[in-house]
Amino acid sequence: MLPYWSWKLPWGRCRRAPTCHLHPYQKDRHVDMAMGATRVLASGRGTSLVPQTLKEMRATPPSKGSANLKEENARRRRALDGIGVPSFDAHLQANGLDALRREPAAILQVNVGLYCNQACSHCHVESSPLRTEMLSDQVAERIVQLVRASPGVSTVDLTGGAPEINNCFRYLVEECRGMGLEVIDRCNLTVLQEPDQDDLDRFLANHGVHVVASLPCYSASNVDQQRGYGVFERSIDGIRKLNEMGYGKEGTGLVLDLVYNPVGAFLPPSQSALESAYKQELLDAYGIVFNNLITITNMPIKRFADYLHQKGEMQSYMQLLLDNFNVKAVHGVMCKDLVSVGWDGQIYDCDFNQQLGMGMQGRKTVFDIDSLDELTGQRIRTGNHCFGCTAGQGSSCSGATL
């Protein structure tokens, strides 16, 4: 059991500009560790999902695979060896394509921390309530400085974990929106019901934040299987709260996109066709609306890699990605104009590389550069997980690339 003080680290206190305010989550809260569970209590408002998540985590045998990245990478490498496939870069060359190189950065994606009130089975970040890695004040302030010095950046994409729980989340939103940039919040929806997050929907709406929310299916059983018991119902309630603020409705300018990812070892269906089905089903069954559906292929890393290994499906899944390799999808891969920053300030070519510890050439941090423009032209680090982004319709954090 971690000492009491260490459980408080994820929330910290982010230094703010004079116009900023202390995140309300910092107020009137403590950690109740009775009976080995962590439960956030705050002013009697909201009911945390954390106790249920921890209960399910205790009931599930811990995975050993992704604790060792070399072992995980070796499993994927062996899977490719078994079907006679060379490295991703070699496969590009065999298909007449050059190695990937960075274009001017347009999107800065920041992982503000790994703490989350959920512990989803497909999560490539392996977030949970037990993770304490979170963005520091110093790194957050440096990120704002870099954005100001990088005129080509138009979007700041905040992810986690549950990014909203970190105090620096609101600081980053306020600073970046103040510069006229688009800000994306990758929201798990259930965070809207966490204690002292009762004003989160209004905060997001007041700042015109683009919400990209996870809802891997419109079936309660499928969602709960992947994301935890009761998550579907909480997610629907979260969408309702956002709809009440105007999200997902024409004419408001408040964009709510939903994210679908497969619940097994298969590729997403057509994004446009599935969007129509989602919209009709969610409107008819729950009276809720959204703007766009984003489909994302599961990357064969971390928890999903463990799932494939336990099911004995790693080789067949890698074969599926290879069989559906699409040359056209290569041209739209997100790593070309996206820079990914980890909670510790390390810089990566994409979020997946970040979770595999594959830093940019030279192991750069936000303190090693003065502008993201310095990264233009640099060769992108690739691995065999990259076949996930080039299969079928292509896959990126913004959905299908074709």
Count of DSSP E strands? 10
* Strand content bin: 5-15%
Largest sheet: 8 strands, mixed
| Radius of gyration over C-alpha positions, nearest whole angstrom | 20 Å
- Summarize model confidence as the mean pLDDT: 85
The N- to C-terminal Cα distance equals 47 Å
Structural class, from helix and strand content? alpha/beta
Helix content: 25-40%
* Helix-strand topology string: HEEHHHEHEHEHEHHEHEHHHEEH
User: Strands of the largest sheet, in order across it?
Assistant: 8-7-6-5-4-3-9-10
Note poorly predicted spans.
1-13, 15-45
Q: Identify the overall geometry.
A: globular
**How many distinct helices?**
14
Question: What does it look like?
Answer:
With 402 residues, the chain is of the alpha/beta class. The protein has helices spanning 4-7, 50-59, 69-82, 88-94, 137-148, 168-178, 200-206, 220-227, 231-244, 271-286, 302-311, 314-323, 327-330, 351-355, and strands at 29-32, 39-42, 107-111, 155-159, 182-187, 210-214, 256-260, 292-295, 338-341, 347-348. The strands form two sheets. It has an eight-stranded mixed sheet. Strands 1-2 form a two-stranded antiparallel ribbon. It has 14 helices and ten strands. α3 packs across α12 and α5 (137-148) runs parallel beside α6.
Task: Give short descriptive properties of this protein.
two-stranded antiparallel sheet; 402 residues; alpha/beta; 33% helix; eight-stranded mixed β-sheet; 10 strands; single chain; globular
Outline of this structure?
With 402 residues, this protein is α/β, with parallel strands linked by helices.
Task: Walk me through the topology.
Elements: H1 4-7, E1 29-32, E2 39-42, H2 50-59, H3 69-82, H4 88-94, E3 107-111, H5 137-148, E4 155-159, H6 168-178, E5 182-187, H7 200-206, E6 210-214, H8 220-227, H9 231-244, E7 256-260, H10 271-286, E8 292-295, H11 302-311, H12 314-323, H13 327-330, E9 338-341, E10 347-348, H14 351-355
Parallel strand pairs: 3-4, 3-9, 4-5, 5-6, 6-7, 7-8
Antiparallel strand pairs: 1-2, 9-10
Helix pairs in contact: 3-11, 3-12, 5-6
